[in-house]
Structures are given as C-alpha cells and as structure tokens.
User: Fold this.
Amino acid sequence: MAWLSRWRGRKPDASPRPLVSKTPTVPADWASRPSYLTVLQRFLSLRDARTGVPEYWEPMFGIHPRRVVDGLLQLHLLEPASLVETVEYCHTGAELKKLLKERGLKVSGRKAEQAQRLLDADPEGMRSFATEHQIVRCSPEAKQVVQSWLDRQAHALETTTDELIAALRNRQFKIAIQIADAWRAQQFRPPGHPDQEAMTVPSQPRSLDDRLHEIARMFTLRPKILKELGPDQWEGLHLNYAVWQLLGKSADEKCLPGFTGLGEMDAATVLRMLSFYANHQRELAQWRPLGVKTARIACCHSGSCDRCEALDQMRYAVDKLPELPYENCTCALGCRCLYFPDLGF
Assistant:
C-alpha cells in the first residue's frame, strides 16, 4: 500500500505488479460460446492485442477483456505477428517512406516490401519498436473454428430469409413475424458503446395487431418517384423492404433477381426511396393530430439535383406538401429532401 511505503520511508512502486489469477480466463468450451468467438473474429486479421477488444465488453465476460485476450494467447488461439508484419501494420505508407528516406533507402514498393527493407537495414531498431506493440492474429485452429461458426450463421440467415420470403409472398404475415422474431432471438450481440447506448431511446414493444398492420401497409406503398416500376418489380421491392424491416438485412437477389435499378438509381437507392417514403408518410400522420398546419422542405444540398434545390425552404400547408421523395428528382442518389414542421414557437 502506498501510505505504508511512505510511512516506512520507501518510495511506492510506480508500476505495481498485476494480480495473477489461477482461474482460467478462457473456458474449455470456448469454441461453443459466441462471446469468445466474437472476440476471436476481431483477430481474423492483424490487430493490436492491447486495444483489439473494447473495454465496454467487460460485462460480457465478468473480467477485463484484455485478460480474455491474454488467455487466448496462453492457449495459442492467438499468435503473434512476424516482425515484418508488425512493422508494416503499425505504420502508414507515408510513415514507412519517411523512415526509409531517413535511412537513405529506396522508398518505392508495396508496404510489405518497404517494411522488409527497413528490417533488413535496421533490425535492432525495428525489434526495439516491435517490443512496444503486440500485434496478433488468430491461430489456424482458431480461424477454422471461427469461420465454421460464421458459415453456420450465414446458412441460418439464408434459410430464415427463404422461409420469410415464402411467408410474405403468401401474405402469411403472422408466420413471417414469428420467423423473424425467432431468428433475432438467436442472434448474439455484444454490448454497445456506452455513449451510443445512452443516446438510444429504447423502442416500445408493439402489439401483434400493430405489427401485422404495419407489414400489410408495406405492400401498399407506391412512391411516385418509383412510378416506372412494373408489377413484378413492385412485388419484389415490397418483399425486399419487408425482409429488410423484419431482419435488418435486405435480400435483393432473392426478391428482385436481375434488377439493377431504375433510371439513374441503383437497386439499393430504389429500396432506400421506398423506406424514405414510408418514413415521410409516418411523420405526416403523426403531425396532423398535433395540429401542425404548415411545414417547409429542406434540401440536403450535397449532390442534390436542381429540382430538389428549387424546393429548399419552400413552405406549404401540410395537406399541400409535395410528396417526398420528390418524384421529379433526377439525382442518382435519389431524393434526400426532408419535411420540417412549423411549430409556431
């Protein structure tokens, strides 16, 4: 203790020895635990062992994540990078060129070649540098286990998506909700960043009737900006949007095989326009009961077309607002204009 050392006239140790625990920090069944597989997944490519796992993941293990990484190293599930890999990883291309130039060496070539050139010319300096870092990656054994786990997850998502699309095609919306909820319940999610969690407003649970009504409504959405779509394309787009809303992942090729886009908009932008339309319609429906009478349109100005720019700051009665996304938009990114209510403060 520092006060006892001072009382005895000795200077306290500036770097106290870490406590050594005999309790294993990695369980024997690590290969079946998503938390440890998630950590190892971060090391499929080179990463610094000291900072490779967020500290806010501690609740996932009950111990500091660095101790988990140390345990993985002790079990040889993580292995150190070579010296040349460490030099390459820890420097940008510009930094490597600067070091080479300072030593009068050739600066051209790929980063790996530059790092090897530095190591050949200054082995002691590079070894000294490497002792300040701990760059590691998964061992072949760990990599194989993690990849098998990821493959199983991908297969589960593929199967779930197929089942979900079949239920949606048949308008069996209750079954679709059950399929999506079962898949989501099986997903492992590590803790989020505390700052992000603090800013996130938890969504309120909704009744089954509300969810059924929402999904049915998805198949009625037809924004004018997408009016050139054919009947089969509308069906595929609605399916894709419903899958996206239920699983958080789109299924372009399954719902719209061969579809590359509409006009200047690619397939992802087309899906985004449908999502924007749904959000804008939801906003307007919420404003009317609140007595909002007028609103203005704000253009994003970043790559917007002239037609959207012309709407910027224009005010309208709520019932006279031009539909957003704006049907006359010619931007390849689609219309990104927004409604803003006049609250009369």
